[in-house]
Design goal:
This protein is mainly β. Helices cover about 5% and strands about 40% of the residues. The strands form 14 sheets. The protein has a 25-stranded parallel β-sheet that branches. Strands 18-21-24-27-31-35-39-42-47-50-53-56-58 form a 13-stranded parallel β-sheet. Strands 3, 5, 6, 8, 11 and 13 form a six-stranded antiparallel β-sheet that branches. The longest helix has 14 residues, at about 255-270.
């Protein structure tokens, strides 16, 4: 038997020393111990890529793949359409790495990649349209190697497309610019070739017969040479061997057997090896004082629902070492009431998690304090519905954590976050990570924080909305930052964005004293800020002025002070180098800027002082108080798709929102659409000839167009919606239109209609204790809402969908075992919750156990309401209103 120390090496990361090594040697690799050694050796043998900054220094993670962008790589070729460069929220290009991608529409369209180095595996970052009713489509796309068809890649949009207000849903809708924009378009698919392809091999993706999605978008191809599976380390138990018998075929739920094997390894002082295969899980695996090693990220795959490794909380788990495996969840929407859909969740001290691929989970790793001495390295986290990695000091401090050499892409909240919720994040280091395209918030977010945290050597790219490359704030109830915080050696590329909640740009590095003064020392030193679409450094006012109000001198606001900005380089900034909106001060030295869009400094009397300590260049001579004079109209969604059309028949209307993004009113010209598409005024929010100045609270700053498609022939029709206008002139804004008569989704077909009520808020005129209105949209026919007995009729059950949506049918259920009864129901609709109209008159509906106690009601054509209400005036089975489920379908 191997000793405990051999199976689970104890470690307390000497963070200052290790961070110093990583800073001195930007691509230094962590020393491998225990089961990590073989995995690390295989990774190090591969080809690594990173970005070289203006300083000549390399930034980002030392990844094991070579990435090619389909639109910009010199080794990529296409006869498709290049999308971008685009920074507008709600467009396919805006969420892509590099803000550009290739779209394939119609048979014969392709994109190819010529290998620059040998590879035996590839991961494609791609997008497909959603289904008509949400939930995604499945569609194949043919993969060729040197002209020979090799496989049909199984693509899906099941894990893409979010709608409505935060935390969003899968129910298609288009609404207000400040929170109801369709987004989260991308997913990843990986494929392992049957051999190692030499450099010069051409790998092509092509639309062939049977590849019948209306369109495909390919963003990047990540080619790598994957090592053979890692063998069982000495002293490790084999989870698939007797007596554990863990199923690695994926055929059965093996959660209990695997948990038993983990517990046995922990108790015996041995590690646990997971051989190559697929392990299907249904609940989190509890880990403490145990080492778990897979055969590699491409060989050992954990999948299913609620796939997670759970650490203990307060006190945390200790001496956990997990490596060499992949976690593929089935998470398609964010549910913050569930922590079981997170790759790693809980407290981990003196532990290491490394070489793990995490995809389609809610969060990659949510680490809860108290935790100390945790290393997270060489993780690949993609396509989550919330954060990538969050160090959350909720129940105690998170200290001496090292987060390094991780690759994160398409997280739907902060890529990396330090959240000092109730305690400090102290002596933590985020060093040499790559964070691409966070769909919401920041590439790196710091909320509160403790002392001596370091953010260094990271490559941060392509912020999408409501954040910047690095956001430093007193927000989300965090404890005050004590500092110092060092931000150094990072490269920020195309970070920052136009915020639809504020209606102006957010900087690449920005400070937000939302909930208190920020006085802790912060040093911003030796960073490269490249091609930011708006400002380089921003200091937000805690009053969060919106629109043109930001140009008036603020009367109050928390301060930002004790900040130094030294020896930074800014190139190609879209608006300002410094955007000063908060009271306070910053000392600046050695900061050089070139390619400044508007002015070096934005300042409108907030009382912010820029203290020039010398050596600055390219920005000191120009200060303005004004937003851009020219600002194009914003139209979304940027691609509008009409699916399963019938020749000669108009499809249901799709909505396109047009917003003025300028600080002054803008003219709106005559909107036109290509042949086959018809545009008309929306009944509820029609467009006129002008739009008010941008303001989230002014509905006259935006309007809605209704677009329908009438197919003239079988197949795919492409078109454009052209919207002229905007402040200061400029080119018209356009929206891509795609209509298709094909059955959508290839093998998968169109997903069934989504139950809009699952994400609605239900209320009732009364409820019997223990039988609330929320029982009627919990997805469980066994629970039910019942009005208060003896209070008589009528009783109402009301669904608030959050936004105006198209509704076609209602399904009502009662528990399957109940006897036959008739309930008399009137159906009403409203868009404001106070003025109601009758959609269907009072009718007796029979609930018959032989028919599953289910009633389906078809609503009038064109029903388009935010609120649906059932007014129940009688029940032959009980002296109260009763319903198990109130389901609403589009």
């Amino acid at each position: 038997m191997t000793s405990r120390s051999a199976a689970r090496p104890r470690r307390r990361t000497d963070l200052p020393a290790l961070a110093a090594i990583l800073l001195a040697f930007p691509l230094a690799v962590l020393p491998a111990t225990g089961a990590n050694a073989a995995t690390a050796a295989a990774s190090d043998a591969a080809v690594h890529t990173s970005t070289t900054a203006m300083s000549g220094r390399q930034a980002g993670a030392d990844v094991p793949f070579t990435e090619q962008n389909a639109a910009t790589s010199p080794y990529a070729r296409t006869n498709g359409t290049v999308l971008g460069s685009d920074y507008r929220y709600g467009t396919l290009a805006s969420e892509a790495t590099g803000r550009t991608a290739v779209q394939l529409v119609g048979q014969g369209r392709y994109v190819s990649f010529t290998l620059t180095r040998p590879a035996n595996a590839v991961d494609f970052h791609y997008a497909l349209p959603d289904s008509l009713h949400g939930g995604g489509i499945d569609a194949p796309l043919e993969l060729y190697v040197d002209g020979k068809a090799t496989t049909a890649l199984p693509l899906t949009s099941q894990f893409s497309w979010l709608y409505g207000t935060y935390p969003f849903s899968n129910n298609p809708s288009v609404g207000r610019p400040d929170g109801q924009v369709p987004h989260d378009f991308y997913n990843d698919v990986r494929y392992r070739f049957d051999r190692t392809l030499p450099a010069g091999t051409v790998v092509r993706l092509q639309v062939d017969p049977g590849d019948n999605a209306p369109w495909y978008v390919v963003n990047t191809a990540d080619f790598e040479e994957v090592a053979p599976p890692t063998a069982r380390p000495a002293g490790y138990l084999d989870a698939t061997a007797a007596p554990y018998g863990v199923d690695n075929t994926g055929a059965t739920d093996t959660t209990t057997a695997l948990q038993n094997a983990i517990d046995a390894a922990s108790a015996s002082g041995q590690g646990l090896y997971l051989p190559p295969g697929t392990y299907t899980l249904s609940r989190p695996l509890n880990v403490d004082n145990v080492a778990i090693a897979g055969a590699g990220e491409w060989d050992t795959v954990l999948t299913g629902h609620n796939v997670s490794f759970a650490g203990k909380q307060n006190p945390p788990s200790t001496h956990v070492d997990i490596s060499g495996l992949a976690i593929f969840g089935n998470v398609d929407v964010r549910d913050d009431s569930n922590s079981a859909d997170t790759g790693f969740n809980g407290g981990f001290s003196d532990s290491r998690i490394s070489h793990v691929w995490i995809q389609n989970e809610k969060v990659g790793a949510w680490i809860i304090g108290p935790s100390t001495g945790l290393t997270l390295d060489h993780l690949r986290i993609q396509d989550t519905t919330a954060d990538g990695i969050n160090l959350n000091a909720a129940d105690g401090p998170v200290t001496h954590a090292l987060v390094t050499q991780n690759f994160l892409r398409n997280t739907q909240d902060d890529g990396l976050a330090l959240w000092a919720e109730n305690y400090g994040d102290t002596d933590d280091a985020l060093v040499h990570n790559t964070v691409d395209s966070p769909g919401l918030a920041n590439n790196v977010g710091v909320y509160g924080s403790g002392a001596h945290d370091v953010i260094s050597g990271n490559l941060l790219q392509d912020t999408v909305t409501r954040g910047g490359g690095i956001g430093i704030g007193q927000r989300f109830g965090s404890v005050p930052m004590s500092g110092p915080l060092l931000v150094t050696g990072n490269t920020l590329v195309r970070t920052g964005q136009w915020d639809p909640g504020w209606d102006y740009g957010v900087g690449a590095i920005w400070f937000d004293p939302q909930q208190g003064d920020m006085t802790a020392p912060v040093e911003i030193r030796d960073n490269d800020i490249l091609d930011s679409p708006y400002s380089a450094l921003m200091f937000q006012n805690s009053n969060a002025y919106v629109g043109s109000a930001v140009t008036t001198p603020p009367g109050a606001g928390y301060t930002v002070s004790n900040v130094t900005v030294d020896d930074n380089r800014v190139r190609g900034v879209g608006s300002y180098v410094f955007q000063d909106q908060a009271p306070g001060s910053v000392t600046v030295s050695g900061t050089h800027a070139s390619g400044v869009g508007i002015a070096g400094v934005f300042s409108c009397g907030a009382g912010f002082q820029l203290k020039d300590a010398g050596g600055n260049a390219g920005w000191r001579d120009s200060t303005v108080c004004g937003l851009p004079a020219r600002s194009p109209l914003w139209a979304y969604p940027g691609t509008t798709t009409f699916e399963a059309a019938t020749v000669g028949q108009a499809t249901p209307a799709q909505k396109v929102v047009v917003m003025n993004t300028a600080a002054t009113a803008a003219a709106l010209g005559q909107v036109t659409a290509s042949a086959g598409f018809t545009v008309s005024a929306d009944a509820q929010h029609p467009c006129g000839t002008a739009l008010d100045a941008a303001s989230p609270t002014d509905p006259a700053a935006w309007c809605v167009l209704d677009v329908v498609f009438t197919a003239q022939s079988q197949g795919i029709t492409r078109g454009t919606l052209t919207v002229p206008g905007g402040a200061g002139g400029g080119a018209p804004t356009s929206v891509q239109l795609v209509g298709s008569t094909d059955p959508i989704g290839g093998d998968g077909g169109v997903a069934p209609p989504s139950n809009l009520a699952l994400n609605a808020t239900l209320s009732a005129s009364s409820a019997l204790p223990g039988f609330p209105a929320s029982n009627a949209n919990d997805g469980n026919d066994g629970s039910y809402w019942e009005s208060q007995d003896g209070t008589g009729f009528p009783q109402t059950l009301t669904a608030d969908l959050g936004t105006t949506q198209q509704e076609r049918t209602i399904t009502l259920t009662l528990p399957a075992g109940w006897g036959t009864r008739t309930e008399t129901i009137e159906v009403l609709g409203s868009n404001d919750g106070s003025t109601w109209s009758t959609l269907l008159p009072s009718t007796g509906y029979v609930f018959d156990p032989n028919a599953g106690n289910t009633v389906t009601i078809t609503l009038p054509a064109g029903t388009d309401e935010r609120f649906l209400q059932l007014s129940i005036t009688g029940n032959t089975g009980w002296p109260a209103a009763q319903l198990s489920e109130f389901e609403i379908f589009d």
